[in-house]
Amino acid sequence: MVEWKGDTTEKAGGKAQRLDRLESFNVPNFFVITSEEVKQLFNGETQPERVLNSSLDQRIEERIEEAYQDVGMSSEVRKASGKARNLVGGQRNNQFVSIRVSNSKKEKYTYKLNVGASNFFDALKQVVSSYTKHESEHPSVIVQKMVEPGYTGTLENHGMRTVVETVKGLGISLEEGLTTPSTYLMSQGRVEDVFTPDEQLEISRNPVHGDNQRRKIVVDERPFDDSEIKSLAGKASRMGVNLKFVYKRGSFHIIDAYDTSNEDPVITEEGIRASKGEIQGTVGREVSFSEQTVPPEEFQEGAVCKTGAYTSRDGFKIREAGKPAVFQSGDELEKGQRINLGPEDVTVSRDTENTASLKNTGSGVNPFKQESVEASGLASEVLPVDPRVGRGVCVERHSNQGYVVTETETEAVGIPQEAYISSYQDFFTFNSDRVIVDVRRLQREGLEDAIGYVDADLKILIVDEPTREQVRHGVENGFDVFAADEDNLEALKDAVESEEKRFIMQRLRELD
Are the C-beta atoms of 61 and 120 separated by less than 8 Å? Predict the structure, then answer.
């Protein structure tokens, strides 16, 4: 059986047990699918790709589905007689939930928000797959009732200081380092400083189709009264926990609790040190400079980012890796500049006497293709779809790098909305010299002929799980850019390289 809030055991995992101890806080209802049940559900499968495509154990699936239908009820109503349950039957209709791994640190693995009945088990597969990609066992998984947020934030205690960071709407923009949060700095229970950005990225659920929608908003006031934050921080300090919360209509709802740290963060109006240590090197080589935060594996010596939160996932990973980084930097850096930062500095000093240009000449094959630091060896570009940072093909977010479906002016190559093909009807209506064909949304039957129909100066193909057949059609029909999600990027690169070589050898044989 699943384990419910108020009755969790060690099998439920650390996150669930910590939430269960927060009796003095408002914690939305949740249940836990224990690792044993997850293992049974996926028939013992641990290979990530097989988890994503597996057939589920029907008996366990029905049990979990019944628990999902009850998550909108309080424990008292859930345990009540059938008549009492029927009085709140409306709460059982497509309750939105979050799905997270319970036995992990700081959302280390994939998590899903605003999951409804139609995509519940697909979302569960993605969460479990992200865990088995790194671990040889099955995770315990928390399924928690979603509270539609006014704000989402984190509260961390560091000795005598407390840091609260919050964003409007869903916490994705905070967690993923996509924006600059409003920040409260507290000392010994008193609010000392409040830093608010001029604007912020708000992510919310579209009430019509349920997908996430993004927009830039002006921040013109503090999210909370000082008294509200002091009360929350006092309770968290007494219990010795850090909190992740949702704020709605004057109430804080706690959705995660994790252990405290005694380190003293450097947070100022000019920027924050996500991790301390000297940063010296050339921008674009040893030092990464980006609009949004980056994980530690994506830079060598240090990172300078224009947005980001101290409590973000990348901030946590960077501190664990022991690499220095600055978030919320107001500096505008250029590739080739030498920079120097002291161990706790947040403002960059440039070494103007020693600069190095990192620009390459490029092949000139694709007139839309920007210059890159490293040559890939491929005739086509291979890019991630909607990356958190850096160059990519963006269909659900705005970016200044790569290719973006947008009607607004951008530094990236803009693709008109009508040139984004996601249905077979779109093939016959687009009229543009730039086009994106999203294979993920198309049925396979007739795909080869449809791809061959596309005629444009810039052609981009988005695939799901890269197959040689899809890539072959793209290469043979002169597509300039291939894209997939970041998990499938290496497989896509291998497929494109192989098919380009095959295509070239075929043409050479035809010339003999």
Answer: no
pLDDT digits (tens, 9 = 90+) for 12-29: 999 999 999 998 999 999
Residue 119 to residue 293: CA distance in whole angstroms? 29
- Specify whether the CB–CB gap between 125 and 139 falls below 8 A: no
| 199: Cβ contacts below 8 Å, ≥ 6 apart | 216, 217, 218, 219
Q: Which two tokens stand for residue 226?
A: 């000082």
**The two structure tokens encoding residue 303:** 């990172």
Q: 336, 355 in Cβ contact below 8 A?
A: yes
Nearest to 420 by CA among 379, 458, 382, 468: 458
Distance CA 390, CA 392 (A): 7
Distance in Å from the first CA to the final CA of the chain: 68
Same structural domain, 138 and 233:
no
Question: Are 110 and 118 in contact, with CB atoms under 8 Å apart?
Answer: no
Residue 103: closest CA among 317, 260, 258, 297: 258
CB 131 within 8 A of CB 101: yes
* Helix, strand, coil content of the chain in percent (nearest 5): 30, 30, 45
Task: Report yes or no: 245 and 254 within 8 Å, Cβ to Cβ.
Answer: yes
User: Using an 8 Å Cβ cutoff, are 249 and 147 in contact?
Assistant: no
- In angstroms, the CA 329 to CA 237 distance is 30
Q: What residues make up the domain containing 328?
A: 272-351
Given 226, 259, 292, which residue is the final one in a domain?
259
> What's 196's domain CATH number?
3.30.470.20
User: What are the two backbone dihedrals, phi and then psi, of residue 305, each rounded to the nearest 5 degrees?
Assistant: -125, 145
3-state secondary structure of 304: strand
Two tokens at 396? 């659900």
Q: pLDDT tens across 387-440, in order?
A: 877 789 998 877 778 899 987 767 788 898 889 998 888 887 888 889 999 988
* R_g of the chain computed on alpha carbons: 25
Given a contact cutoff of 8 angstroms between Cβ atoms, the answer to whether 445 and 424 are in contact is no
| 27 and 100 share one domain | yes
Indicate whether 64 and 122 sit together in one domain. Answer: yes
The pLDDT tens digits of the residues spanning 136-183 come to 899 999 999 999 999 999 999 988 889 999 999 999 999 999 999 999
Structure tokens at 382: 């291979």
Of 210, 232, 259, the one marking the end of a domain is: 259
